[in-house]
Amino acid sequence: MRFAVIQFPGSNCDQDCVHALQVLGQEARLVWHQETKIDPEEGVILPGGFSYGDYLRCGAIARFSPIMPAVKAAAGRGQVVVGICNGFQILCEAGLLPGALTRNEGLHFRCEKAYLRVETPASRFTSHYVTGEMLTIPIAHGEGCYRASPEILQELEAQQRVLFRYCNAEGQVVAEANPNGSSHNIAGICNAGRNVLGMMPHPERCCEAEMGGTDGRGILLGAAGIGRKI
Amino acid sequence: MKAKEFALKLGLTEQEYGTIEKGLGREPNENELGMFSVMWSEHCSYKNTRKELRKFPTTGPAVLVKAGEENAGVVDAGDGLALAYKIESHNHPSAVEPFQGAATGVGGILRDIFTMGARPVAFMDSLRFGRPEAKGEAGKRTRSLIHGVVAGISHYGNCVGVPTVGGELVFDPAYEGNPLVNVFCLGTLRHDQIRRGAAKGVGNPVFYVGAKTGRDGLAGAAFASRDLTEESKADRPAVQVGDPFVGKLLFEACLELYARPDLVVGVQDMGAAGLTCSTCETASRGGSGIEIELDRVPQREKGMTPYEILLSESQERMLIIVHKGREKELKEIFAKWGLDAAEIGYVTETGKVVVKESGKVVAEVPARLLADDAPVYEREAKVPAKLAERQKLDLKKILPEKPKVKEDLIKLASSPATGSRRWVWNQYDHMVGLRTVVRPGGDAAVLRIEKPGGGWVHVAMTLDGNGRWCAQDPREGSKALVAEACRNLACAGAVPLGLTDNLNYGNPHDPEIFWQLREGVEGMAEACRFFDLPVTGGNVSLYNQSPSGPIHPTPVVGVVGKVEDGVHLVPGVFGKGGGAILLLGTQESGGLGASLYLQEIHGVLAGKLGKVDLAAEKKLHVLMRGVLKLAGVRAVHDVGESGILWALAEMCFGEESAGAEVTIACGQGERPEEALFGEGAGRILLEVEEETVTMIEQLAKEAGVGCYRLGKSSGTDLQITCGSVQERWGVRELRKLFTESLPQALEG
């Protein structure tokens, strides 16, 4: 499958996403934020980084980029849209996903490996896994604390739209394992149509053994519509 | 004010003023004097150290761009791949404004690297502060400096998407009034992509690109060339303000520009001394002149004087000279990235930098005079009066009659001086770019770099400094640093290719300080020559002293190397147990002179480091690289600060590491504390599969290097026997102390 990796000024994981997708045998092209077209066959990746320096609020300016109407249209048509880290923040700001990402509870930027519990295989992004499976995927963010109203959180839970939660090395979802203070230990969610994924951890950083792990492969391959090999 | 009076006020000497007047053939105006005061500051001209720096070996088969030629040195990494790298200090700015001081240090070194045509791919930082656990105001100030500096580095480095992959963090009362912030950057490029900072081709347009010029960082280079005093806080306007977002756009735009064939003539970043430095240096290198019009310089505020525009050190600005007729392409690229690109002048044949404001000449100076003809001083050097006294060491007066090794190790593990640095590097994105193969926390960081034709080259790098060693014996201490850096690379199977140095010293007008510097340079030069290691450039930071005195003499070296083919990269910590533990090199501890152990446990800085056996060291490194090609090596760690027991303890600190059972040789008449905590060079610890032991012993024998079996990795305790001492510690408890000491000291 081909992916359009959107390049905002200040994106810095754009090349990494292209590389990871290519390692997984997928096609990827960089799309500058001032372009306005996304092909109907493409998947879309909003990569990590600091779009527009994140000076106002993470993702707050990027949502006004000329490419965003095309991203919204693609999401509306059911195309795959994945927002990673800053990309997740942009998706929330753009209204494609509910809630917001705020400053980490500990206030520091944190770059480290995180354990994630897969909450449901019922999405293309988690189709490679079983419920309760544990993944090790790095995080690298200063503003990854997921917040939403109680109603929205309830809706996310009820519709099984929380795809990943932070857990400890034993796979338990506990407060100590939460690196940023996110509500319900949320690390990644999808939209009601289950075609838009936002997650703070970086699956593209763990698609090769040399980079310290391959647990991110399933997520990106799933996004590309490639099922798990049995 | 008379010109001469103004010159003296700017820090120029009477003699220097005379040279300027003679060189110009007339009385200089204030703008010109401002330009000379920064270009002839130590920071820009190395006027006090140039004679010493000539002692470094600077050539070698791998050197593509030599020290002093351009903004950064470049070495050949094979397969058409080149590495550009350099270290630079931002000590003074960080002392008065830690967040912006450190952030702009990162931004500055970043520009030095992409100016060379390279894509920046990694940062490392060497940081030194006072003791964070100190009581009262001193401790509070130190903690706030540490928080500010780490946050500043994190802010800039993370945002520009260049990983910070290693470095060092040292706490010592010697840096309480004057912290050290040295930042290293590595970039990669093809041989044919190397850019030069020369203004050539009469009539070619000179562009100013990037951020607008403001009143920040006025004459920062001159500020950095003075002692820090109580009044230094008033120099805050001399500290620049960084914008990493613009930094990121600027380097992406420049790299896109460089990719256009035959477009760019020359590039120079505007760092220290801003517009003044970039124009006179490019003109001087090109053997040409430059004429600029200040009205065309993008400005952040109205009413800036020529003096301010010429001396501003506003960040994220570059000077680019392109071929005439290609202006449109440059403008299009910078417009795409949303950056200013103003044609401010052109290349001339006059050999002069001519600066106009609204068509009127406000400065006219021969480029060479400004850039290259700064006076060179021979400073007086004198052996410090108290040195011999300080080098004496009477252990009987210091150590308890009966060794207390058990408590000693617990104290070390609980000290922020030795504790885990995870609190720091977790705040740095060390993975972005998908190149970081060996992450922070080990002996050397390793990056994979894509070869021009596909496939990977693995590049190892390390930063090392040790003020304590150098305070007690600047010559041997500096040699030991180079040896240690090369040993760190050997632990990653890498052959060193080049070295960049940051010479941090006090006021060079003090003969005792200058002696430290000279000894340091000569020691480093000797070691570099021995390891065939060219010095490809770096930075000199003098005047590092506050009312409480000068810092320890602190040269910091950054060494970059290439991992040999066939090497298996292994962790620095033990696996789950069942391996044999070997010591490669020497069993001699080097004694406790200048050791961290004496300072931490007994509060004494005394004695000096043992002599470094460079020949033995080199053999050890060759052997190490060979051993790493065997399949059965599980872990490797060099013995450095705090000695062999600390190195063993660190090897137990992996998340899943076993403990160890070892016997450490104690020489005749040697105290067990010496054997365990001595910091002598030339030692590497290995954990290997039992079946590999004989093979390694054989290889060591052939190489003429010692190989000693110390014991095995096993269980959950660290158990040692050394002379009369037999002790054991629970690894879990030690690890907890090690992990928590730094966060506790900083966050309570």
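qc> The first strand of chain B starts at residue 63 and ends at 65.
qc> done
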